[in-house]
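Run: sequence + fe (ii) ion -> complex structure.
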Amino acid sequence: MRTMPTPANLNITPRDRRFGRGAATPRLWHGNRVEATAIYNALSTTFPAGEAFFVESVRKFREGAPPKLAEEIKAFTTQEAIHSREHDAFNKRAEESGYDLSKLEARVAKRLAITLDRPPIVNVAATMALEHFTAIIAHELLANPNHLAGAEQETADLWRWHAVEEIEHKGVAYDTWLYATHHWTRWKRWKVKAKLMLYVTRNFVVDRTAGSLELMRQDGVTGLRAWSLLLWYLWVHPGMFRKIGRAWLSFFMPGFHPWNEDDRNLLSAYERIAGGTGATRKVRRAA
Ligand SMILES: [Fe+2]
Ligand SMILES: [Fe+2]
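>> structure
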């Protein structure tokens, strides 16, 4: 397997957009489907605190980093800060539509509390693993229109915008990790990153499944019916978890780098649509 580092001409461009302000979001915004709405809402609940954690973890390594990486870290933190803001606003609209997110938020807070007494290198490793996860979900979301089919326009736009920026900055946490561990042996680096990936994947799948089932319960769907709707949606059709399986596995291969898969065609496809609306204003620094 070939190692292709982050492309030299990659531009990480924060797009300071706002979504859904001034209008209510329908409760079942995703095609009136309980399970589809639940999984995206459960994911969104993790972003405000989760992405703030990513920012803090990566920012610790900015000082002394090579200038190109330091610049990319700055753009990464700006993008993530804006994502946190927009998903916080989205989560408030979900609450206004009647959902109680407190159990889901408590679960995220509990997971993040574990990171408080961990060394910075462990937190950057967890961030790097979760960023790969986010990037492969983002890729699949943009590459396969089935995932957002039937979703309310403004909310689908929010998810596409977020997906684009996740792809754009997918190498930053990884490059930060490589920089921070350059004195480690390859074996030690692989062992730590593999351990972290297995750990965050387990928590991700368990927590998002539990969170989705809780939101479905609030819509009156429980038991076997809830499980079968959710498992079908995640693993069969449109089958996000099944479809990212290969890309997830690639993380464990020797020579892995997020940019071994150059998917900038998805970014240009997005820009062709959003660029025409003037929606891609650049911003300079983190909030
Ligand atoms: Fe993000
Ligand atoms: Fe990210």
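>> summary
Residues 186-218 form the longest helix (33 residues). The mean pLDDT is 94.
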